[in-house]
Amino acid sequence: QVQLVESGGGSVQAGGSLRLSCSAYGVSTINNCMGWFRQAPGKEREGVAGIYSDGGLTYYADSVKGRFTISQDTDKHAVYLQLNSLKPEDTALYYCAARYGTFCDPTRIAYTFWGQGTQVTVSS
What we know:
By secondary structure, the chain is mainly beta.
């Protein structure tokens, strides 16, 4: 049974940083994608970043390129999202997600497994 558990959300001022963590249980460490999505109040969920397990190829939404960094520790079955230069528009519930396969762009493909989410709030 797959379980994804996020942590690390919080409240920061604009320009600040946060690091989100996701522990993955029951997910194979090979041939899979781990990703981060977010959903702001009144908006649809959007893909933020994705990473492929084998080789670490990464994908980012245009809105976060250069500010957010996704990384993984396959030994710990964990994936991280470093959020820098945060803006009020980054405020959202951030979800960790996983899928099996080789194409990991979260802006273009659906993910299968989901965590419960962790809240990020950025004040101006």
